[in-house]
Structure formats: C-alpha cells, structure tokens
Amino acid sequence: MPTKVSDSKFPKEAFSIRATDEAANAVEDVDECQRYLGQLCQHTCTNIWGSYKCSCHQGYILQQDGHSCAPVRSEEENRVREEGNTAMGPAKMTTATTTTSATTTNPAPLNPCAENGPCSQQCTAFAGQVLCSCFPGFQLMTDGHMCKDVDECVTNTHTCRHTERCINTEGSFVCELQVVCPAGYRLRNSDCEDIDECVTQTHNCGVGFICENTVGSFRCKPKHKCITGFTQDSHGNCIDINECSSLREACGSGFNCINTVGSYNCQRKIIMCGHGYHASADGAKCVDIDECQMGSHRCGAGQICHNLPGTYSCDCQTGYQYDALHKVCTDVNECWRYPGRLCAQACENTPGSYHCSCTAGFSLASDGKNCEDMNECKKKPCDQECANIYGSYQCYCRQGFYLREDGHTCEDIDECSQSIGNLCTFKCVNVAGSYRCACPPHGYILSANGHACTDIDECTAGTHNCSYGQTCYNVPGGFRCLSFDCPLNYKKVADTRCERLSCPTNSLDCQNLPVRITYYQLSFQTNIVIPAQIFRIGPSPAYSGDHVVVSITKGNEEGYFSTRKLNSFMGAVYLQRQVQKPKDFLIDVQMKLLRQGTLTSFLARIYVFITSAV
Fold it and tell me: Does pLDDT of 22 surpass 90?
C-alpha cells in the first residue's frame, strides 16, 4: 500500500474551516494551609499534594491528634531516658552475646506513672516521659515533682470583698465577714447595738447630775436648776453667767456689753469720722460717703464718676480719652491707633468704639473680629454642582455635561457625535448626560458590557418556526430552516450525509454519480475581507499518489466563489467578491479523486449565509 500523508479522527469527512478542538480540563491541588489559615495546626502547617501535615517548633512534640503540640522538659526527658536504658540494658546485652539467635525479644516498656510515679499529685506519661501537674489551688515546685499550696490571701488572687477577711485553707480560701462598731456601740449577732452607759454605769456624771442615755453616748443633767443669769457647776453650785462672752451679739454693733451679776448692760459707743466718711446708723463705725450716688461730685458731661474710699474720681467712658487742655473727653480712633490688630479685614471707627467688616465672599465671625468664608453654594447659584472655595465658589457639571461660558449653566454632551472611535458596535443613542447602545430590532440583544450586541440563538431557544422535517440553523441576527433530503439512488446514513446505492455493472450514468453527498452550513458577515478561504475539501485518509480536482458545479452563477487546488490531495473554496447586502447561497462543490487509476467523485452541498455586520 502507498504511504499515508494525512489522517484525521473522521476518515470519511471533508475538512471545514469552522472545526475547532477544545482543551482538556486540568486538576489543581488545593492549599488547605492557605485556605484555612491558623485553623488546622497549632504551630506550623505544610501543604502536600492532596492534603497537609502539621509540625511543631523546637522544644515541642506533635500530639497523637496530629494537630496540637506539647512542650518537652529536658530534665524529665534525660531522667526517663536513663530509666529506660536501665530497664532495657539486659535485653541489649542478651542480643549482643547471643549471636546465633534468629530473633531478639525486648521486655515490655515500663509505665513511668505507675503508683503516680515521682509526682505528689498528678502524673502524666507522654512519649516515655513523666509530666507532673498539681490540683487547683496548688503550684508545682522547682523540683518538678512536689506541689505546694497557693496562699490566695497573700498573692491577692482571692475573691473576698472589702468587708470580708480572707483566710487561707489547703488548696483554697474562705471569706469571713468582719464588723467594726464605732464608740458607744457593741457587736451582737453581727450587728452594732447602742451601749446604755447609764445602765452599765460607764458614765462620768457627778453627784449633782442625773445620767441620760443617748444614741451612741450619754449626757449629764443637773438635779436642780439655778435662777436666770446663773448656771450650775460640776459640784452643783450656782455661778454667774457672763452673757457678754457666752451670748452672740448680746448688744448691737454701736454698743459696748458690760456684764453684771445675774445679767448685763449695753452702753452706746461714741465715734468720730473723717472727711468723706460718716457714722453708720447704729453709730458703731464710720462708713464711706458715695459722692457718685448722692450727686455731690463735680464730674463734667460725658464723664463717669467712680467712688473711692473717702473720695471719688472722674473718668472718661471706654473709647474716649481726657483732653486736659479743654477738660473734656474726646473719641479715640481705635482703627488708626491699632492698625491691623483689631479686625481681620476692614476696620471702621465709631463714637467710643469701632466696627469690623469683611470683604465680598466672607461674613463676620461671632467674635466680631475675624472673617469666615461664606458658603455661597447654600443659595444654589449653579445649574448642577457647586464647590465652595475660599472667598468664592465654583460651578461644575456632572459626567456627560459641560459648563457653559456663563459659568453656571450645564449643557449635555453628545457622546455619539463627539467620541473618538466607536462607542457601540451597532448604534449609539445620545441621552441626557450619557449615551446608550442599541442593537438591531430583531435577532440580537445587548450584551452585559452595554456596548456589543449578542446574537440570539433561536434554534437553541426554540423560538424558530421550522417544521418537523426541517433542521434549524442559527445565523447572526436570525435563523434558517434547512431540509437535508437525499436524491434518488441515495440513502441517508447521517443527518447531513447521503451515500449512493449500489450501481448495476452496466449502468455508466449511475457509476458517474458522486459516491457521497454531504451538507455543510457556513455563516459570514458582509464586512469579511476578500479573498477569503471559506472551505477545504480532500480525502481522509490521503495517500501518496492521490490527485484531486475541485470544482463548483452549481450555485455560482454570479461568480462570487472560486476554487483553488492547495496540493495534490487538497482543494479549497474561496469567496472572491464582496457581498454588499445579506444574501444566501447554496453551492455544490464536487471533488474528483484519482487513486491508483480509479476515479471517484464526492459532492459537498454547502449553504453559505452572508448576514449584516453588527
């Protein structure tokens, strides 16, 4: 047999320019450590193909759960290793001396926590090591084995309140309520009750007095009373009361108090006052004369009288100064006297004072001195958007508008007429402040990006009107109803393929008919660049020595298509004229194959649909 020069998955199919292969799916590993960060391992997580593994830091060992880590104690590790070596010593010696034995039996490992091991309270065996721990309320001593009680009262780890006293116990503590009673009270049943000093005879009243109990104390009352002006001493004697020292203000402020036996007298004081003062109404002291209030001063018009001790003064009002020559008060121009220091912007003098003002775009602050920027945007001077700036404002427009020369009005931008390049693949429609893209009224919908038009597949959606015996073929912007019928002397072997029936040996016309008729569908747009190769045809498989002749036998009356031989076993169909408007073609492409002296023909019946460019 001749050597093959080409082959394909379908040995009896013609080649189509629209055939493509799809890539196989790939399997990727999932990084569990990254996806569940900090949730899988206590210390370190390492990703491996299809899973992960945990590891621990130095000085720690991985637990049996494969996730958590426990510390390794160096002293206990050495002690346990020495004990293990002692236990395993005989077995090792036996293995060394008995060289002829086939197997060696090691003794069962000892439990280091048997009978609680070296620990005083709790013992835990881990990886051949002993870890000692204590019960709550105890702490491990420095030897790592013994436990001592924790004094919660000393370490201040108790929960007693400030009214309770902490008492340490073995492994815990108790809180005891403590009550301290003030003087005159005593504790009984956790409560403070009053002490009756008169009953308990703990008072210090004299012979002439009677004890009377009070809450928290007592008082001594005399047994008999003295006449007015006298009082009883500790021995029961009546003595004179000095009303001048014991009474508060026994006499008025203008009198002197003189004590007498059993009473007192008030004697008027005699006082002399200097210039500017006069005696008070009670005659007890000298008080200042207020010349300003009485009107006895000699201040001029526009002056202010200020009273002073024993005299008065005449001063000018605020904002005025005294003119000694004319003996009058004149206005002070504060704006000239303190330039640039009183007002932030403009200063205006007023009688006795001044007034601050601001330039355009500013308003006077509450302190009456500084100027604050006015927000002109509150008055809405702009057509769309307003931006306040220092001392003024600026109008601007939203996206899709531009600011007119008046600086206030916004005008719509026609993006469809002013844009550089195509905003929409089919049609641009200007709207206020923006634009929108539109598609042909039939056969297309606007894609998600809002710019391109997506073809509606009526065949897949089931919105076509093809009959039961027809096949729906989708084209951009519409669909076609096709019938793939086989002519006489042919039988349908597939949906789009017919094969010739066996011919009588003496029927030359039958033998000249194509061995196979295959239907194809191709779709292109009116803007296709020509010449364009739209179809290839050839035998499959092909052999060296094959020769083919490709020609268009039907449907090319207007000369839009042409054929070309690519090599000895392959031909192609070209679109050689530009199709200006949508148009459908049905062309018959015949391939005659000369193989080892035998001539065989094949027919490709091709539907070519030229649709509008979108």
Answer: no
